[in-house]
Amino acid sequence: MSLLPPTGLSRGDVLATLADYRAGDLAARGGRTFAYVYDAGRPDVDELSHEVYASFLDVNGLDPTVFPSLLRMENEVIAIVAEHLGGGPATVGSFTSGGTESIVLAVKAARDWARTHRPEVTAPQVVLPVTAHAAFQKACHYLGLEAVLVDVDPTSFRVTVEGVRAAVTDRTVLLVASAASYAHGVIDPVEAIGQLALEKGLPLHVDGCIGGWLLPYFRELGVDVPPFDLSVPGVTSLSVDLHKYAYAPKGASVVLYADPAMRLKQFYACADWTGYTMINATVQSTKSGGPLAAAWATLHAVGEQGYRELAAQTLSSRDRLLKGIPEIPSLRVLGEPEMALVAMTSDEVDVFEVCDEMAARGWYVQAQLGYRGLPASIHLTLTASSDQHVDALLADLGACVETARAAQTGLDPALLEAVRSLDPDELPDDVLGTLLPMAGIEPGAGLPDRMAGINALLEAMSPRLRERLLVAFLGELFTTSAKQEA
Ligand SMILES: Cc1ncc(COP(=O)(O)O)c(C=O)c1O
């Protein structure tokens, strides 16, 4: 028996079935989901970009010489982004599928730059603030580099230049700073790290995936945004996601380089096989023209004034939240958020319970686990559509903190002890699978409604054990049995 329908389903059946599948998804629009999605509150722009996306879906970015529309759009998008972010006449870049791909490519470029210019470095290292996005560690993992983590200041959540300096060795091939960091929304001291990079002759990548597009508009609106872009001496590359605060549909990011010679190290060509000559600017080979065309359309449909207005709404929501949160007993903001990302914590109430209570009231706020002495927190990614909800959000947050205060939380100490005593590197895969139910995750059942217990247990584990368990969880999650049983 085939899992495919014996004859094709009708258009109506396909659409109805998929609409049904979506019933359990978080809302991507409406402003009540404070992570994963970016809502400009502009249905006109969404409609246009979706139409353009669909119209370019079948065009293949594999070969820019045969689909010149893609080449033209990419060059125009890169020029717009470079101008926005302090690029000079020599600045070049690439359009990629997302922040992670931009970061993987910047790390590859730095690695291959070092291979050419510092061949004596055989075991290269990348120096990263612990607040740098995990995509850098993924890049190091994929590309065979060592990530050297630098702790951040526990009050400001920014890395210090002294901390970075102390981590540099004769094997360092790249420095990294965030503008801004995802977890706490603060900007690392890019100018000072740029000076260090120049002094040591090292490349410096600024991760502006989440902040790069928005921060220049915040500056125009009078916010004191420190210099962070390609105009800062020492910055050699910068990533910025258009599918975040430029509100393009998903699959849109840019990586820029101050020096075209560095970008050449990002590219890949293979002539050593039997097929067509393969030249790839990015990781993907065949790629739909949809995301690029939709990003081009979004940038042009919103325009300068539109982005300024969207930034003003976003800033208003941030400032009202930052004013309201300290009025909620037991809740405090971490650091001084410089962008539109806010992290809150509590010394008296379980923040994971607060997240669950908020979910029960129809808000998605994100739990962030404690790590290396930094507290667990609740993360909010604010967008232009958040502004309309600030008063209701603050009211519900206050109520949820009180419910969480009254809730009986805390894990069984024996369970915590058992988890802490596990050596992640000694656990075979099959034993690891048996730990999932212990963590409250039943194979095949997806995630439970309430995550507080699971988060508390994960937090008690070493990062290494967390990683191993999460990988086992993915193995359980992505399974063909659901389709076979249906
Ligand atoms: C600062 C930062 N860098 C990189 C990324 C990774 O981006 P993506 O999820 O598009 O791969 C994110 C995502 O939130 C981010 O906030």
Defining traits:
single chain, 486 residues, globular, Aspartate Aminotransferase, domain 1, 43% helix, seven-stranded mixed sheet, 17 helices, binds pyridoxal-5'-phosphate, Aspartate Aminotransferase, domain 2
Report the total helices. Answer: 17
| Global geometry | globular
The small-molecule ligands in this entry are: pyridoxal-5'-phosphate
Instruction: Write down the overall mean pLDDT.
Output: 94
CATH third-level topology of the largest domain: Aspartate Aminotransferase, domain 2
Q: Based on the structure, what is the oligomeric state of the protein chains? A: single chain
| Radius of gyration, whole Å | 23 Å
**Helix share, percent:** 40-55%
CATH-wise, what's the superfamily of the largest domain?
Type I PLP-dependent aspartate aminotransferase-like (Major domain)
H/E series: HHHEHEHEHEHEHEEHEEHEEHEEHHHHHH
Quick one: CATH class of the largest domain?
A: Alpha Beta
| Structural domain tally | 3
Query: Major beta sheet, specifics?
Result: 7 strands, mixed
Distance between the termini: 13 Å
Topology, pairings included?
Layout: H1 11-21, H2 43-55, H3 68-84, E1 92-96, H4 99-117, E2 125-129, H5 135-143, E3 146-150, H6 161-167, E4 172-178, H7 190-200, E5 204-207, H8 215-220, E6 237-241, E7 253-257, H9 260-264, E8 268-270, E9 278-280, H10 290-324, E10 332-333, E11 341-345, H11 351-360, E12 366-368, E13 377-381, H12 390-406, H13 413-420, H14 429-438, H15 452-460, H16 463-477, H17 481-485
Parallel strand pairs: 2-3, 2-4, 4-5, 5-6
Antiparallel strand pairs: 1-7, 6-7, 8-9, 10-11, 11-13, 12-13
